[in-house]
Amino acid sequence: MFRLEVRTSTPAWFNLALPLLAVGATLVLCSGLIALAGAGVLEAYGVMFTASFGDSYAITETLVRAAPIIFTGLAVAVAFRAKFWNIGAEGQLLAGAVASCFVGAIPMPGVLAILLMAIAGAAAGAAVALVPATLRVKFKVDDVVSSLLLNSVIYYALMALIEGPWKDSFSGYPISPPIEDSASFPVLLEGTRLHLGVIAALIAAPLIWFLIVRTTLGFRIRVTGESPEAARYGGIHVERVLISTALLSGALAGLAGVGEVGGVHFQVMSDISPGYGYSGIVVAMLARLNPLGVVPAAIFLAAVMTGAEAMSRATGVPAFLSDVIQGTALLAMLVALLFTAYRIRRVGAAA
Amino acid sequence: MSAPLIEMRGITKSFGAVKANEGVNLSVAPGEILGLLGENGAGKTTLMNVLFGAYAPDAGEILIQGKPVRITSSADALAAGIGMVHQHFHLAPRLSVLENLLIGIPGRSGGIDRAGGLARLSDISRRHGLTLDPDLPVSALSVGEQQRLEIVKALFRGARLLILDEPTAVLAPSEVDGLFSALRSMAAQGLGIIFISHKLNEVRALTHRCTVLRHGRVAGRVDDPANTTSAAMAELMCGHEIVPPARGPSTPGAEVLTLDGISTSRHSGTPLRDISLAVRAGEILGIAGVSGNGQRALAEVISGTRSPDAGRMTIAGKAVTRFSPREVQALGLGRIPEDRMTTGLVTNLPLADSMVLPRIGTAAFSSKGLLKPDAIRAFAEEQIKAYDIRCPGPMTRAGALSGGNLQKALLARELAFDPKVLIVSQPTRGLDIGAARFIHEKFLDMRAKGCGIIVIGEDLEELLVLCDRIAVMYEGRIAGTLDSADATIARLGLLMTGAEGRA
Ligand SMILES: Nc1ncnc2c1ncn2[C@@H]1O[C@H](COP(=O)(O)OP(=O)(O)O)[C@@H](O)[C@H]1O
Ligand SMILES: [Mg+2]
Predict the structure, then answer these.
(1) Does A9 fall in a domain?
(2) Domain of B399?
(3) For a FRET experiment, which of A115, A120, B242, B375 has its CA 20 to 30 Å from that of B348?
(4) Which of A8, A216, A350 is nearest residue B366 as measured by Cβ atoms?
(5) Contact call for residues A159 and A175 (beta carbons, < 8 A)
(6) Full domain range(s) for residue A52
């Protein structure tokens, strides 16, 4: 018999060990599926690893994929710190993509275009996040539900746009017109897709860390999340903090969309995000809401996504395994988090 | 006398280096109310958690009616007839009273035996005067009623020994009487009761025998509590004599806080109706009253967390206009809330964060939106030292501190800024004698330095020791104000029932 006992303190090394443990458990659990699909487990993971980290090109591809997940991961981490349950990073990303693509299609000098795309995308993401935040602050509407449902609203609105008024007249496909060449993000390494947005994401993480840990806004966000009553008594405008957090979170998610439009796809289509917004939740949890932890966690998920495609080609295991790994990683992490508050004690069978 | 109902022998339990219990012996006979006394941290809760199966003891044994038993879970304990009312209740807030009673009790064919439950509830209620509305959700119950439900829950499961861990800490004095008569009725019917408290007058009034813990060991036993002096018991608890603080004569100065015709709307709780009062520099004003007579609204208005609908308030001669925490603080008001754990501190964050929380936006701890981590840390470290706050350091989770240390931290964070007026609610609720003594001394120090203090409390003895004047609240009004020279428990009690106000 085992049972859970409340911990009074959590050892410091747990913060690092838990995500690693969760990832390890995930890979072990998923190896069962690989075996079921008739492939060698080590071989399959080997292919995944080579495809995502095997050479410098593979590494840049993994980083390119990690960039939007870093942004959505930061968006979720910031929001969850304040206990603003933003499940809507996906919709905010899409809104950011649409807004930046719209701006990028207007002819203007490159630097200005990139700047305006970023501003427009961030603003659009923030505006979307403002909806569930306002509903919660004004009417006590559950933010999990409203932010989640808003994702579908935005997705179908986007579909309606690119199937209708915003359809690219050249190709005739349901995709938006492309942005101007001058508006596409500079590539940092010749022969790769490593674009400006990737660097922006890598810089954003320490900036957001600084904001959370070293600024009064970050302090207010942390306190509001942990205890709204103590925050209010201490003179913090809890509602104002929630709204600010939502704006910041939405803007970060919007920037994920900006990077995809400016650096990868150069236009908007229905599958511009393979669920990067939801991956952000997994990443934020793996990172234990630490903005610095978001980077390695996002790189891990990006590697799984890139690797799964290669593995599928090489071994015939369906690429959906990448989704299974993501989902399992989230569950494993949630279970692992239990051990920060509890420990397992062995109880002898009753006499 | 019959064989002991339960007996604990040589119980030892350590948490790391801390020996919470060491070789503790204790027994309770049927029909006996045993007082378990000790300062905070003496090991009372740990001992009872061992008895209730939450912790496995490192050594020692438990005997029920002379037979050794192994209790490794609360289910074992319940099966052995041991019920416990914890300091923090274990109730499902959205479920009704009856549903809470029936949780975990299988009815016929796995369903819920509602009728049977109702019958047993009304039987228990009738026998011990523990009335409860079976259909009310727990979230609608007062703290006293929730406690009643916990007691009924234990009896419902057939407890023959009932453990109550500091049950009176959360009760108003008027509710304590009801609890005591129920406990006496249970004992009269043969139940054993372990009553944990550090309030000596309660222990003397209720218990038949006492076991006193100090630093995890039995410091002594008292066989006739009713005829033992509080001072003698306090000495057993603390290991040294406790002298009450002496309040010297005061020379009150100018008015530092005035309320003039303050009224609030009926938003939550009892509203204030036309409250006027003044606190002068170097004076302690007590606010007495049965809880729920507007004390909370008064504390909120003065602390700047609620705006009055009518009336004026001044702090140090300046009018308060916005009634925000930041405004009243800037005018020189120090605030200590009633609920240390939820409104006072952020339990999951480092203690240092809680200590700077109300003034995080001021130049002391931040500039231009950037925190000053070194200043924050230094401030916390300084206060920890100055107030002897027992904790590993400023980065300790605030929730890990004991009640007395939390209160010291809250006091430190206000007094460090030399307030002109200080408002505190229930300053020593739940604190042991030593910690309460420390808090009282600080108040008297501040008074001598010319700070005006307003103490909202229910403990009349405490108010009489501390205060220069005592105002009594009744139904949102000030029913009367007495100088401490004229105030007696009897006169205050009369005002508290509204009697004098109506006459
Ligand atoms: N779960 C625990 N882990 C570590 N130390 C604990 C735990 N519970 C209690 N202690 C320590 O054991 C001692 C006794 O605590 P407790 O039994 O709660 O005292 P009391 O109830 O008399 O106030 C204290 O020093 C306390 O800090
Ligand atoms: Mg205790």
Answers:
(1) yes
(2) 347-413
(3) B375
(4) A216
(5) no
(6) 2-346
